[in-house]
Write a structure and sequence with these properties.
alpha+beta; Outer membrane lipoprotein wza fold like; wza like fold; three-stranded antiparallel β-sheet; 4 helices; 20% helix; elongated
């Protein structure tokens, strides 16, 4: 998947020199801030079971998307909201803890699965892992902004789609920086690649 995405990225960067901004419906892009957080690999969760300190643990979601709980064993976590994971834990512990004492809370300690990449003519290329969801303009700012060789008006995001094929979302960073075309300032999603030619 990564090789295919990087290959697509290379082709899109090559084509960016002659690309022009096209009409795009930014309103169809999802905003994960409006929904419950979806857990991903490398995230760290804190499980608290009332009056059961030996069952209260801090766990990291493994690359296979699971966590391991005392007494229960492995539980699927990646791709699920916190409420569903908490429900799974409570259901599993129901065989070991009296129902009247079974109170489970679940908290996100570290959202390490939220990663994206910025490449091209910015001051600092690389992969970034912010502590909360950010917008395109905030992401480019994290990378130090466009450098003197950049064509920020031709920037774009490479984003995976439901079909499995990456798609390109045009973003005019120059206009965003001057307060124009704010509809383009969409939220960066995990796995996005932001390209500034």
């Amino acid at each position: 998947m990564w090789l295919r995405t990087l290959a697509a990225c290379a082709c899109m960067i090559t084509a960016a020199g002659c690309a022009t901004q096209v009409a795009y419906d930014y309103s169809k892009e999802s905003d994960p801030r409006r929904a419950e957080y979806t857990v991903g690999p490398a995230d760290v969760l804190r499980v608290n079971v009332w009056r059961e300190p030996e069952l209260s643990v801090e766990v990291r979601v493994r690359p296979d998307g699971t966590i391991t709980m005392p007494l229960i064993g492995d539980i699927k976590a990646a791709g699920l909201p916190l409420s569903k994971i908490r429900a799974q834990i409570a259901t599993g512990l129901a065989n070991f803890v009296k129902p009247e004492n079974l109170q489970v809370t679940l908290a996100l300690v570290s959202a390490s699965s939220y990663q994206f990449t910025i490449t091209g003519n910015v001051e600092k290329n690389g992969t970034f892992t912010p502590s909360n969801y950010i917008t395109v303009l905030e992401a480019v700012t994290m990378a130090g902004g466009p450098n003197r060789f950049a064509s920020p008006e031709k920037a774009f995001i490479i984003r995976d789609s439901a079909s499995g094929r990456p798609r390109q979302i045009p973003v005019d960073i120059e206009r965003l920086r001057t307060g124009k075309r704010l509809e383009q300032n969409i939220v960066v999603l995990p796995g996005d690649i932001i390209v500034v030619p």
